[in-house]
Each structure stands twice: as structure tokens, then as C-alpha cells.
TrEMBL record:
<keyword id="KW-1015">Disulfide bond</keyword>
<dbReference type="GO" id="GO:0030246">
    <property type="term" value="F:carbohydrate binding"/>
</dbReference>
<dbReference type="InterPro" id="IPR039475">
    <property type="entry name" value="ILEI_FAM3C"/>
</dbReference>
<dbReference type="InterPro" id="IPR039477">
    <property type="entry name" value="ILEI/PANDER_dom"/>
</dbReference>
<keyword id="KW-0964">Secreted</keyword>
<dbReference type="GO" id="GO:0005615">
    <property type="term" value="C:extracellular space"/>
</dbReference>
<keyword id="KW-0732">Signal</keyword>
<dbReference type="InterPro" id="IPR039220">
    <property type="entry name" value="FAM3"/>
</dbReference>
<comment type="similarity">
    <text>Belongs to the FAM3 family.</text>
</comment>
<protein>
    <submittedName>
        <fullName>Protein FAM3D isoform X1</fullName>
    </submittedName>
</protein>
<feature type="domain" description="ILEI/PANDER">
    <location>
        <begin position="101"/>
        <end position="188"/>
    </location>
</feature>
<dbReference type="Pfam" id="PF15711">
    <property type="entry name" value="ILEI"/>
</dbReference>
<keyword id="KW-0430">Lectin</keyword>
Length: 226
């Protein structure tokens, strides 16, 4: 009995070692070592580059004191949802699960930077009434951040367009089916916002089949003081 057990153990060990040996032959470690060394060598050859510093919201430039950093990315076609970063916090995104097709809107207190409310409004299937109920009560001193996803325009009516225009938008009048639009405005600002981008859905110029290129914008918004 004991003899058989010993033989079995020996056989198992032998099998293990042979497998190990052949596996080693088949996947030689040398290649890995070589490529690793190449990576390290190249690193050494390169002049030591400065780490690229990223600022609030991952932006390229820092914001002065008294400003909020923001970054807005529109939806990509009907595939990837938009995202909003404000003061280094992702306030709306697919991961946060608070965005959807249509118009995505974040309302922020312009004095203290607090997120008041977010809303996502399907502009293809849903009545514009819900959007109006969201926009009409917005109080003075509120920042309005907007990003399109898929179709921001089909059900927009004059009243909704006029509200966005009153927040400083230049393009709200033109937003239609599957256009791309990102915008930061405010209730009570009396000028056109510098923070707005728009691309028309146009077969000739679209990046994707039925949609224009993704829009992305970063910047600094002055904190409201009184
Ligand atoms: C900041 O603004 C929010 C939303 O308007 C408000 O609820 C909150 O009380 C304010 N916070 C402070 C510290 O004033
Ligand atoms: C913003 O917050 C301040 C206090 O920090 C408050 O006095 C003001 O009413 C708030 N404004 C809005 C639009 O919520």
C-alpha cells in the first residue's frame, strides 16, 4: 500500500515538473524580461519630463481664487452619456446614474457652489412641460449647466428656448434633432454666456453617422458675490 502511494506521489510530481518545463519552453520568460528592460531603458534615455499637472476637474488651467472650475462633455451619439464636473466633483454622469437622452441640466447656487438640482429631459418622447416645470422656478443667482445627449431638440418649444436664451444662451434658438449642445448660463445674467458650444446635425459634417462630434468645454465661473 505505502509503496503504491509513494509511486503515485512520485508520478504526480514528475507530471508537474514536466508540465512546468514544457510550459517554460512554450512561454519563455526571456521575452518578458527583454520587453520590460526595453521599457525601463527607454525611460532612462528620455529626458525627465515634468509630470503634467492637472487642476480641478482635470482641467488644463487652474482657476483663480473665487472661481469655480467646470468641465462639461456632451453625449456621444446615442452611445455614451454626457458628464458634468463642477468644482472638482462629478455632479452628473452615467456612473452617477442621473443622466439620460435629451437635455441634461444641473442647477447650482452661484454664490456657494452647492448643487441645487439635476434634471434629465427626453426631448424626443417626452412633453416639454416637464422641462418648463424645471426651468421656470429657477431663481436669480443660479447657474444652469446644460449638455445634450442624442436628441436635445425635437420637442423644444419657443417658451423653453426663450428661457435658455434668458440664461445667456445664443444657440437655444437653433437646437434641433440630434444637434450637439453644451452651455453654462445663469438666471439673472444680462449678457450672452461665453461658455457655449453647438454643432448642427449635418450629414455632410457629422463625425458619426447620425450625430455630430462630441463637445467638450472647460473653464472658470466667477463665484457670485453680493
Ligand atoms: C448653499 O446653497 C444651497 C442651495 O441654494 C443652500 O441650500 C445652502 O443652505 C447654502 N449653504 C450655505 C452654507 O449657505
Ligand atoms: C445660494 O446660497 C446663499 C447662501 O450661501 C443663499 O443666500 C442664496 O439664497 C442661495 N441662492 C440660490 C439661488 O439658491
Amino acid at each position: 500500500m505505502r509503496c503504491t502511494v509513494t509511486v503515485r506521489v512520485a508520478l504526480v510530481l514528475l507530471t508537474l515538473f514536466t508540465t512546468w518545463y514544457f510550459a517554460g519552453e512554450l512561454y519563455p520568460n526571456k521575452v518578458d524580461m527583454k520587453s520590460l528592460r526595453r521599457i525601463f531603458d527607454n525611460k532612462e534615455e528620455e529626458a525627465p519630463t515634468e509630470e503634467k499637472v492637472k487642476f480641478s476637474c482635470g482641467n488644463d488651467k487652474p482657476c483663480p481664487d473665487g472661481y469655480f472650475a467646470f468641465r462639461i462633455i456632451s453625449g456621444a451619439a446615442n452611445v455614451v452619456g454626457p458628464s458634468f464636473c463642477f468644482d472638482n466633483i462629478i455632479i452628473m454622469s452615467s456612473v452617477r446614474n442621473n443622466i439620460g437622452r435629451g437635455l441634461n441640466i444641473a442647477l447650482i447656487n452661484a454664490s456657494n457652489g452647492t448643487l441645487i438640482k439635476t434634471g434629465s429631459f427626453d426631448m424626443y418622447f417626452t412633453d416639454v412641460k416637464l422641462l418648463l416645470e424645471f426651468l421656470k422656478p429657477v431663481q436669480d443667482g443660479t447657474l444652469v449647466l446644460v449638455a445634450s445627449y442624442d436628441d436635445p431638440g425635437t420637442n423644444l418649444n419657443e417658451e423653453a428656448r426663450a428661457l435658455f436664451t434668458s440664461f445667456g444662451s445664443s444657440y437655444a434658438k437653433k437646437v434641433h434633432f440630434r444637434d450637439a449642445w453644451i452651455f453654462v448660463g445663469g438666471k439673472g445674467i444680462n449678457t450672452e454666456s461665453p461658455f457655449e458650444q453647438y454643432l448642427q446635425n449635418n450629414k455632410e459634417t457629422n463625425k458619426y453617422d447620425g450625430w455630430p462630434e462630441v463637445l467638450e468645454m472647460e473653464g472658470c465661473i466667477p463665484r457670485k458675490t453680493k
